[in-house]
Amino acid sequence: MTNSTLTEDPVARGAALYDHGATTVFASGFDPRIAYCLYVPEAAQIGPDTRIVAVIHGTDRDFLGYRDAFAPLGRWKNCIIVSPLFPVGLFGDGNRDGYKHLREGDMRYDEALIAIVEEVAARYGIDGSRFGLWGFSGGGQFTNRFLLVHPERLWAASVGAPGSVTRIDDDHDWWPGTRDFAERFGKPLDLVSLQQLPVQMVVGKADLETWEITHQPGSKHWTEGANDAGRTRPERLTSLARSFEAAGMGVRLEIVPNMPHDSARATDRVTSFFAETLDKLRR
Fold first, then answer.
1. In angstroms, rounded to a whole number, what is the distance separating the alpha carbons of residues 52 and 83?
2. Fewest beta carbons within 10 Å, which of 4, 53, 138, 275?
3. Which residues pair with 107 in a beta bridge?
4. Is the pTM for the entire model greater than 0.90?
5. Which superkingdom is the protein from (predicted)?
């Protein structure tokens, strides 16, 4: 054992081992029922240019896999990757879908994510006022709705293959549309912030199964207009993109040939989108 090893600061050594790279799992200070893991660049990289990207799991809740898939973006583009876990059955009813709609009982999943981002930003001494957001499948639903409610908190958003979408639509109430948005969220849609937000949408052209995404009357999330955006995920995402464009937003819609419902096949496109956006932000 060398003298340097004997005299090494154990606090610094612990921080290097556990607070950087692919981290362990943390309980959220907002609500310990919600957990998250991180990828954090080396300490020497952390500074004013460090950004946060939050990645939101689908119904399978592979939050560790999502973190690992985006770790190269974190390493090469100086980002902290935040990957939360929104567990099934928060209220003991086995509900798999609560987080996708931002609200479940008295839980506000959108506020939980904001709190986690702020917690991480404070821990590493960086700016967490805005962050990038990606979600696939159920996480794509979350991202779609989060960006409508909190566009001012984002510097970019990527919506991946959601089974259901919330369009900017004054003919339907939430969740298919936004007619009652102000009543529901206590504020109007922030169209100015939405029009300034870079948005990517990604879905596979071969992502055509409908068994999981067709809402039936009487089901938990059934409401008027639930299936109006289209039959398949590509149809629904295209309809979402058109509604955003009609509201003056810029959207990069990517329908990927030969891609089924597979988040891994979308990762390179999404990380490229975030990397390009970061380069523009840092100029």
1. 11
2. 4
3. 104
4. yes
5. Bacteria
What is the per-residue burial (b if ≥16 Cβ within 10 Å, else e) of 74-100?
bbebbbbbbbbbbeeebeeeeeeebbb
Tokens for 12, please give them: 């610094």
One-letter amino acid for residue 233 of the chain: R
Q: Which residues on neighbouring strands pair with residue 253, listed in sequence order?
A: 201
The residues, any chain, with a CB within 8 Å of residue 212's CB and separated by 6 or more, are 163
Give the closest residue to 254 by CA, choosing from 89, 85, 86, 140. 140
- The alpha carbon torsion through 237, 243, 249, 254 (nearest 10 deg) reads 20
Q: Mind listing the domains of the chain with CATH numbers?
A: 3-281 (3.40.50.1820)
Contacts with 43 (C-beta within 8 Å, 6 or more apart), sequence order: 15, 16, 20
pLDDT tens digits in sequence order for the chain, 283 residues long: 444 454 578 877 777 778 999 999 999 999 999 999 999 999 889 999 999 999 999 999 999 999 999 999 999 999 999 999 999 999 999 999 999 999 999 999 999 999 999 999 999 999 999 999 999 999 999 999 999 999 999 999 999 999 999 999 999 999 999 999 999 999 999 999 999 999 999 999 999 999 999 999 988 889 999 999 999 999 999 999 999 999 999 999 999 999 999 999 999 999 999 999 999 999 8
CA distance 229 to 165: 7
